[in-house]
Each structure stands twice: as structure tokens, then as C-alpha cells.
């Protein structure tokens, strides 16, 4: 039997009016009651009638999401959270993997006005998107955007803190010969993680063993580490710009019989699924995908219902997750 809004009201112990207000994102509902309704919705697996609500609102009931890739477990987790939160509010999430604003996906989602709002996840060419979205009066939210001047409606991660915490962890373990392998220079996260890393070293009067810029790919970490091995000069620790780079470094070291973390410690970034499945398990900096997705969905819902008119940004702290790939140095 299909669950109705009346079942949700009964389960939560609140009125149908209150349930309806929660579903429509009304600001007047007390947080305690809002949580009761959301808990009841989840427990009953209630799905609002999106079609009926869309007609009532005069909208499509669709939120678009444009992302550059889905071959990334962090992105996957953000998309999953967005989908769940928006579904609770009766919206269908239309995901598009797009390489740029001139793609067919952009034309379908934006130019034909098929969405009530749009989320851009780690976008490239964000200026062009913003111009077009403003021109068409489509509410939008950026996640992990590249330009600080576009932070007006954005959810970002404090990548500076992440880089700082990663380096400080290695320094506190006694490492002084620390290398940093970063991703593409076009990404804001690359520059911010590097800045945090350098600040932590500077505070201790240390210089990096080496800093190398490449791509967020396993091959980059592997080839760089193979070069170190050929040259006979290894750092005692490596801070990798993401978990893929870290995996490449670990693979190269273990192929050569170099022990991690006994001889070289390794820290990654993102806390992708692979990081807790490696041996040794990878110390990394976690980007909390659930909090990022929830914050972005909440911001977009408020923009779509008109309760957020002025620009606002949310910056979320990452978290250092200490596992088995870091230990006190015995090799300086």
C-alpha cells in the first residue's frame, strides 16, 4: 500500500500542514519538528508526488546536476546525498556528465528550461555557466568551484586546512624530507592544498623535498616515485594531492620492496573507497561528502523557493583520517 502524507503525519506525531511545510522547505518549521518529519519520511520510505507538486508550483520538479566525471567515489557520494535530500522534497535529480558549456547536455538542461535549479559539481568554465544561468533566471549552486569571486552561492572545502593538517601530521611524526605531488594547476583545490602544505613546513623552517605538479591519476604518482627510486633519492614522506596519486606512490614503493610506512610514509586526499582497502590502509584527508551534498541541496532549495535572495557561501572543514600508511620516521 502506498504511503501517503497522512501516514507521515501520524508517524511523526505532527499535523499534515507541518509535514507539507517541511516538504516545501518552509522556514517557519522548528528544527526539532522538521527532523521528526524527515525521520518519519525516511522510515516509511515516503516519496512525494512530484508531478502533482510540480503542477501546483508551476515548475518542472527537476534539478539538474552537471559534473565532469562520475569515475570518482567522492563525487559519487556527493551525488548520492544530493539525490536523497532532493527526493525528500519531491525533486528528481537529472545528472549530466559534461565536458563544457557547449555540450549537448548543457543545451538540454539549461537552454530548454528543463530544470528548476542547477548544481555544478567541480565545474570548469564556471563563468560561462553563471552568465547563462543568471540570464535565464535559473537558481544555481556551485560545489568545489575554481574561482573565489564566484563563491556567492557555493559550497567549498577548506583545502588549505586539509593540506596544512596533512603536512603537520607528517612533521609531528618527525619527518623533514617531505614531498608533495599535486594535481592540475587549473584546480583551485590544487593551489590551496599546496599552500597549506607549504605553510606547515615554513612554520618549522623546513623546505619541501620536492614539489611536482601532474594529474590526479595513479600513473602520475607511480611514475614520479619510480623516478625517485632510479635516482636513488627518496623522501621520507609524501603528501599526495589525492588518493589516486597516493596509490601510485605506494604501488611503486612496494614493487621495489620499500616498506610503507617504515621507510616512506604516505598521505592521500579525499578518502575515496580504495583508501580503506589498500594494504597498508591509507592515511588521508576526508572530504565529508554527506555534509557537502546536504549543504548544497539545502542552499538550492532555499534559492528555488525564494527564501535565499542574497549570496551565501558554506565552507566545510575536511578531516585527517590516520590509518596505517604513516608512522614516525626512521629514515632521514
TrEMBL record:
Q: What is this protein called?
A: LacI family transcriptional regulator
Q: What is the lineage of its organism?
A: Bacteria, Bacillati, Bacillota, Bacilli, Bacillales
What SUPFAM superfamilies does the annotation carry? lambda repressor-like DNA-binding domains (SSF47413), Periplasmic binding protein-like I (SSF53822)
Q: Which InterPro entries match?
A: HTH_LacI, LacI/GalR-like_sensor, Lambda_DNA-bd_dom_sf, Peripla_BP_I
> Which residue range or ranges hold the HTH lacI-type domain?
3-57
Natural source organism: Paenibacillus albilobatus
One of the record's GO molecular function terms: transcription cis-regulatory region binding
Keyword list, A-Z: DNA-binding, Transcription, Transcription regulation
Iron-sulfur as UniProt keyword: no
Q: Pfam family example for this protein? A: Peripla_BP_3
Task: Give the matching PROSITE patterns.
Answer: HTH_LACI_2
Amino acid at each position: 500500500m502506498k504511503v501517503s502524507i497522512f501516514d507521515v503525519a501520524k508517524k511523526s506525531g505532527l499535523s499534515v500542514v507541518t509535514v507539507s511545510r517541511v516538504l516545501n522547505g518552509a522556514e517557519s518549521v522548528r528544527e526539532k519538528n522538521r527532523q521528526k518529519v524527515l525521520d518519519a519520511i525516511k522510515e516509511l520510505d515516503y516519496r512525494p508526488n512530484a508531478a502533482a507538486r510540480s503542477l501546483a508550483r508551476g515548475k518542472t520538479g527537476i534539478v539538474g546536476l552537471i559534473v565532469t566525471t562520475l569515475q570518482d567515489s567522492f563525487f559519487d557520494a556527493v551525488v548520492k546525498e544530493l539525490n536523497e535530500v532532493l527526493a525528500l522534497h519531491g525533486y528528481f535529480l537529472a545528472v549530466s556528465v559534461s565536458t563544457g558549456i557547449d555540450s549537448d547536455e548543457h543545451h538540454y538542461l539549461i537552454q530548454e528550461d528543463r530544470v528548476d535549479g542547477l548544481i555544478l559539481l567541480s565545474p570548469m568554465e564556471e563563468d560561462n555557466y553563471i552568465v547563462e544561468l543568471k540570464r535565464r533566471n535559473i537558481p544555481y549552486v556551485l560545489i568545489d568551484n575554481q574561482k573565489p569571486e564566484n563563491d556567492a552561492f557555493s559550497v567549498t572545502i577548506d583545502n588549505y586546512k586539509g593540506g596544512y593538517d596533512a603536512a603537520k601530521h607528517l612533521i609531528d611524526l618527525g619527518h623533514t624530507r617531505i614531498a608533495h605531488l599535486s594535481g592540475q594547476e587549473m584546480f583551485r583545490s590544487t593551489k590551496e592544498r599546496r599552500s597549506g602544505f607549504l605553510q606547515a613546513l615554513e612554520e618549522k623552517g623546513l623546505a619541501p623535498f620536492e614539489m611536482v605538479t601532474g594529474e590526479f591519476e595513479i600513473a602520475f604518482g607511480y611514475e614520479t616515485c619510480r623516478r625517485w627510486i632510479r635516482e636513488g633519492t627518496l623522501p621520507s614522506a609524501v603528501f599526495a594531492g589525492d588518493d589516486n596519486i597516493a596509490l601510485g606512490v605506494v604501488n611503486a614503493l612496494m614493487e621495489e620492496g620499500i616498506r610503507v610506512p617504515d621507510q616512506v610514509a604516505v598521505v592521500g586526499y579525499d578518502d575515496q573507497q580504495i583508501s580503506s582497502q589498500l594494504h597498508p590502509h591509507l592515511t588521508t584527508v576526508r572530504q565529508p561528502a554527506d555534509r557537502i551534498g546536504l549543504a548544497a541541496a539545502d542552499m538550492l532549495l532555499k534559492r528555488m523557493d525564494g527564501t535565499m535572495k542574497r549570496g551565501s557561501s558554506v565552507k566545510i572543514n575536511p578531516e585527517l583520517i590516520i590509518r596505517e600508511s604513516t608512522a614516525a620516521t626512521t629514515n632521514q
